[in-house]
Amino acid sequence: MSVMDIDSKEYQLRCQLRGHEDDARGICICGNAGIATSSRDRTVRFWTLDEPQKRDYTMSKILLGHTSFVGPLAWIPPNEEFPEGGIISGGMDTLVLVWNLATGEKVQMLKGHKLQVTGIALDCSDIVSVSVDCTLRRWRGGQEVEAWEGHKAAIQAIVKLPSGELVTGSSDMTLKLWKGKSCTHTFLGHTDTVRGVAVMPNLGILSASHDGSIRLWALSGELLLEMVGHTSIVYSVDAHVSGLIVSSSEDCSAKIWKDGVCVQSIEHPGCVWDAKFLENGDIVTACSDGIVRIWTLNHDKIADAVELDSFASQLSQYKISRKRVGGLKLEDLPGLDALKTPGSSDGQTKVVREGDNGVAYSWNMREQKWDKIGEVVDGPDDNMKRPVLDGIQYDYVFDVDIGDGEPVRKLPYNRTENPYDVADKWLLRENLPLSYRQQVVEFILQNTGQKDFTPDPMFRDPYTGSSAYIPGAPSRMPDVSKPSYKHIPKKGMLVFDVAQFDGILKKIYEFNNTMLSDQEKQHLSLSEGDMSRLSIIVKILKDTSHYHSSTFSDVDVALMLKLLNTWPVAMLFPVVDVMRMIVLHPDGAGKLLQHVKDENDIFIELIKKATANTPLPANLLTSLRVVTNLFKSSCYNEWLLIHRAEILDAFSSCCSSSNKNVQISYATLLLNYAVLLIEKKDEEGQSQVLSAALEMAEEGTVDSDSRFRAMVAIGSLMLEGLVRRVALDFDVVNIAKAAKASKDAKIAEVGADIELVAKQG
């Protein structure tokens, strides 16, 4: 089938393989011999193509031997030992079983894993298995030949690359590339469990995650593509030589992707645990309703009308059973007959079921009849008035202030939506960088009280014995032994990565024109060539999706340095604002690094200029943000540690600045320093940051966001740093008490966190 064919058509149902008595879990394409599937019903079933019409498959073998449900499968192509091929299966019972397809008999039972087996790969004639017990094990001739720890949490999947290496995915949110027993690369980026891995022919590795995304990585570790569209956990991903990708999810769909875009979503009557391509481009899916389905682009193979109708009714039954109207199940609503009974008072409302919808009616006393009001859309159970944006009702509509003098943006959100999905779509719509994603998600979670959503790297749904994972149920195991903190310790660095480039360029042009008209400063102005270089620099910075491959030329860097060194201090801030964005670009950060290592250190010079005499708030703000953004690249860690004292001293007046943006930037600088100094176990540095943060927490004029960040720094330094005693001597307990009484929920929570750390002996 050519790629052209694939472009123009949609997948349609080809056949349904019925036989499993519980969730169908795993799929294994066994060359041209057939398809193997695994299930929660403890069986592996083998299906072969029906000879006469070659559209349907028939069950030809049931492999019985596992004592609990079965997950991953692998195919052994026919050889002397297995004339018709073999199947390897892994189960919840910790066993790996090897089956001879010719006889349907179990020929090997591999015992060694302590917990459920989650993935199997065939490596030449060896079997490599992975498990929730965090190990990889290699088996040869029925014996374990080696075992090694692979990840910090449950391993969920394994795949063998054409080049011979193995790749694993884990609940520790990473993928690892293995040559033998040595890990040659760790892929970082997912924000939750990596559940599925697959080979993307000639390109790299695909991963599916509980964070709702699918990622494509080069073997070098570079992220090539991120596909976002599922609204819940993505369980599996697979690729076809045509370039198509299929993924399956808890959101009851399998999605087809081409060039990173979702081109089709196939709805199912239940969670889709696995999806795989057949060689001809058809797709096999395993669903929690126990049915395995095959989907095709080939018109001659589409199922007959009876089968298509049967599937459509399964789907609509399932949707009806899940649909809720005004807090009630749709199937529990009365039918239209209920409108035969007259109402008891004027305006009394009644919701009845019409087809797949709930419709509201109001009793009209004067005319003695029920007037139709309209369809009911389910809202939160508390019947509060729901906010409306652009004519659509939402559970929440937030005002988001992204600072930089920008207008406040509206962010709509419904409780049923995946916050990651909402964040991505909103950032694209508002033309903001996707690097804001985590902050937007945290904002949504914090403001909708979804404390349980926190993607938890230790979260182990992996196939809990009960039914499919239910979105919205707490996914965290409460840890009773440890006190739980809401906001500390802070992990990771905060950066300022939104820029209004058009406004910045306009300001630079304006200042340039001022200089052109001033005889004495004319020689400092920019030429036409410089101006076009500047717009090229901005173009590179705007294109965040190519940060891994774009670079700056030496001319670009030289131009920026010239401006920093020669322009009058009062005109520096838009130039510094461009620098703030360049240091977030991997190549930009690297190229500037050589200019901090020599005698005239550009950033130290900049800080001196920006903070001298009576500093301009705009210079303070932009230079603070440049330094804060340097924390993003670990190559600046050493520089930040060496110059810590002078940097914090230079900006110390910002604590009492009347400019809210300066305050929040300074608080963020303190917070990033706290995270770095905790990691470096630098006690003297921690003490300096602690005292600056305490000063900020006590300052009466500090706005609440800045105060919050300062307090998170204090709590983190006390909990994970070396200065808990110092903080207690500084009377941190009273600061925490005052914070707990705050009307601002975040401040009250972090106050409680600090009080709790203070009490821990």
From TrEMBL:
Location in the cell: Cytoplasm
SMART domains, sorted: WD40
Residues in PUL domain copies: 486-757
CDD domains: WD40
WD repeat windows: 17-57, 63-109, 148-179, 187-217, 227-258
Entry annotated with the keyword Cytoplasm: yes
Origin: domain of life: Eukaryota
Keywords annotated in UniProt: Cytoplasm, Repeat, WD repeat
PFU domain mapped to chain residues: 362-458
Gene3D superfamilies per record: Leucine-rich Repeat Variant, PFU (PLAA family ubiquitin binding), C-terminal domain, YVTN repeat-like/Quinoprotein amine dehydrogenase
Name of the protein described by the UniProt record: Phospholipase A-2-activating protein
Protein source organism: Rehmannia glutinosa
Highest classification ranks of the organism: Eukaryota, Viridiplantae, Streptophyta, Embryophyta, Tracheophyta
